[in-house]
Design brief:
2 domains, three-stranded antiparallel beta sheet, 12 helices, 74% helix
Length: 305
């Protein structure tokens, strides 16, 4: 596909010159986020998704200068005008809009069905990517990748993967917390997904599995990596570290709750359950930000060597 040629007059492009493009993208992305809203509003695992729309706008705005570097306003507007009129863009786009209307109907009937949401994401970015590649070329359009990923991370995991992840995290959190408490001299017993501390049952299931902090930490790790513009290898390291921080924080939370139940019984246990969850999440996010700033500083130093 053709890309616009560079210009010797790289003037700043006036955003208003591409108002029709922004209007289309606002509607196109808006209906997708509207489809995801019921899953975010559920408040179980994916309420961080409300951050995805503003972050997508911020990421796009920060990447726009890179995508149009060396191009003047006239060249950019002309490139998008030609791309919109090209059958390579508008024919698949029209088909995608028709399919999206069908998907919106399915999503309205059952907002918890994950397959239509992922197909919707592919339609969204298939058409958007095609438009920008046709107008600006593949290399420039690659800057849209962070925007695409941040929207993908706001989509609920497929049910089978989510179930397996919850089960695996629950098992690991239980084994870790029970092992640490026994090491510290607190005799505990387990039965299924229940820990018995001094006769008090503590259910370690979905709520305590860490899936919510795991998901939000992955999201936070990616977002911080983009804001700091880390090298891709360091972004992967930050995301993996974010998952590790979430697991450590949630395990520490369960250890604390078990010890409290063993020493004080059920006194204030429910209140501490919720409070410890907020504290664990806050500490985890602080650790992610701190680690991101640390590796960004190290990256800067190594570049200067």
């Amino acid at each position: 596909m053709e890309a616009v040629s560079t210009s010797t007059n790289p003037d700043q492009c006036d955003w208003r010159a591409l108002t029709p493009v922004w209007a289309f993208l606002a509607v196109w992305f808006g209906q997708f986020f509207l489809a995801l809203a019921p899953n975010w509003a559920d408040g179980t695992y994916y309420d961080y998704g409300y951050l995805a729309p503003p972050l997508a706008i911020i990421f796009f705005a920060s990447r726009w200068a890179e995508m149009t570097k060396g191009l003047n306003q006239e060249a950019i507007v002309d490139a998008f005008s030609k791309a919109i009129r090209s059958p390579i863009v508008w024919v698949p786009g029209l088909i995608a809009i028709l399919f999206a209307a069908l998907l919106r109907l399915m999503e309205t009937v059952d907002s918890g069905w994950r397959a239509p949401l992922y197909l919707h994401w592919f339609l969204l970015w298939g058409t958007t990517g095609l438009l920008f590649i046709k107008a600006l070329g593949l290399s420039r359009s690659a800057s849209l990748l962070p925007v695409a990923i941040v929207t993908l991370l706001s989509v609920p995991l497929p049910s089978a993967i989510e179930f397996s992840l919850i089960h695996g995290l629950t098992e690991q959190v239980m084994e870790t917390s029970v092992g640490l408490n026994r090491f510290m001299g607190f005799p505990l017993t387990m039965a299924g997904e229940t820990i018995f501390a001094n006769g008090i049952p503590l259910q370690v299931s979905e709520g305590c599995s860490g899936i919510r902090s795991f998901q939000s930490s992955i999201f936070a790790g990616f977002v911080i990596g983009e804001f700091l513009r880390l090298h891709w290898s360091l972004r992967i390291l930050l995301i993996l570290s974010s998952a590790a921080f979430a697991f450590i924080g949630n395990s520490a939370r369960v250890v604390y709750l078990v010890r409290h139940a063993f020493r004080h019984g059920e006194e204030n246990l429910q209140k501490l359950h919720d409070t410890s969850g907020y504290v664990s999440l806050s500490v985890t996010l602080a650790a992610i930000v701190g680690f991101g700033l640390l590796i960004d500083k190290l990256q800067f130093r190594f570049r200067g060597i």
